[in-house]
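Quick one: structure for this chain?
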Amino acid sequence: MKMAQFKPLLALIFFSLCSIIPFTSAKSTEVHYCNKKANYPVKVSGVEINPYPISRGKNTTFSIAASTEEPISGGKLTIDVTYFIFHVYSEKHDLCLKTSCPVSAGDFVVSHSQELPGITPPGSYTLKMTMVDANNKQLTCITFDFSIGFVAPESLADV
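Got it. Here's what it folds into:
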């Protein structure tokens, strides 16, 4: 058989494998401000979730790209998560543990990693992040949605 006869078969195998083996990559997600009329001192330009799709029992990193016109010496981050309409999780962090402090005027990234428990239910979630400075002045407040799939990657290994 000639190689030209194998090309359609190879293409079919490749696309079949692509459909059953999930690729993990980073995903940028749409960000909304908590108060659309507020003029927050910290402007958020995007959120990247890595890896995506999110897997239960594995570390996921949320990288939030932002900018400020004024330096920030320190502060706090509050993260709240809702599952559909139910508040399911909350935590607070020192801002300087999530980015380099002091934050200079200009662009910076806040990075938070979290391992989701294996019992985390699949579905749609909303994360709300509030940032305040050392004087408790609100710098920004954003929300974004993410989802956890119904099929855990570990179960694909058994197929």
